[in-house]
């Protein structure tokens, strides 16, 4: 649907090529709220390691996984959430005039924060449960943070802002990494449940890595309630999407998205024998979030109106958006 952009162009020594790439990136984020990126600087072997470790963890017996549980409240967003615990549809209707039905999420997930985050510590599996888990994701987190800063610089350049404008609003690392496993389910379940209900992401940008099962869909046109598949380019491709904070700062589109029955399978109803089971799916999402004290005042058009309004801080906004999901 939209072309894959090669992030290595951001490092081109040819200024026109570099700036042209940044403008193309911003244009995709303005039009769709999404971009597909190759070569964001995370080695494929690290991505393989993260997916393998995630699979191994989710394959453990439930009593082992529950040794590092997510707290019963929405914050801090850390640790393991079993199937059916989190319910994203509770926040699906944020910012829309078209109410969506509440659907149950069919997933289990694990949330990890930065080791540099001064406010919330991590909840790791205790020794003996999966000893490679903590080092694998501590290292993967740092790789994602480096990629995040480079992408924020590219977006700033593409918007015509000084290169460090966005990256310097992310120095505190209140970012989050989320591993998700969507178990195989009978396809009939999709009539009353979903994998993750329609939502927008709360932060600045999200870097998503997914396997090739499919089912990630975005709302197009925005606000229509119609969803189209974002086809999977495999686990080494990064799907980049705009979150609510970047939309408030810059007007780029924070597109509503969900994970549901892939359209190809939905069409089988008309075209041939239906498969009874929809394959399990794994994804890894890294949510870049602004420093908590950062103001969400628009960065591009500091209008007279904006000067009179008091804007929420990113921390207040995150808190408001996440409550209700647990
Ligand atoms: O699993 C996916 O592909 C998307 C997950 C997602 O949108 C989220 O966790 O915010
Ligand atoms: Fe999302």
TrEMBL record:
Sample GO molecular function, one term: oxidoreductase activity
Keyword Membrane assigned: no
Origin: domain of life: Eukaryota
Protein name from the UniProt record: 2OG-Fe(II) oxygenase superfamily domain-containing protein
Family assignment from sequence similarity: Belongs to the iron/ascorbate-dependent oxidoreductase family.
Keyword line: Iron, Metal-binding, Oxidoreductase
UniProt cross-references to Pfam families, sorted A to Z: 2OG-FeII_Oxy (PF03171), DIOX_N (PF14226)
Domain Fe2OG dioxygenase span(s) in chain numbering: 173-290
Organism: Trichoderma breve
